[in-house]
Amino acid sequence: MTPLWTDTDPDTEAEMVRLLGRASVAERFAIAEALTTSVVTWSRRALEKNRPTASRREILLEWAGLHYGQEIERELRDYLVASSDD
Fold first, then answer.
1. Is the residue at 15 inside a domain?
2. Which pLDDT value is given to residue 7?
3. Is 80:57 a contact under the CB 8 Å cutoff?
């Protein structure tokens, strides 16, 4: 098997792949969901660290812009401004 990672012992990697292959669909989904949650959390924390005075809303909008595009960020901003006028 060609190694997938350069920082992992090949035997360890083979065992990880074997275990993942034996996992049920629900278990694999749970792993993917947990990894996604971690990555989203870490990326938002990085924005917070780089912009310590930004509000939570600003961080979330900036995050949306980085990951989904500036048009989505602008539309979300416009929506939030319009909905706060009610």
1. no
2. 83
3. yes
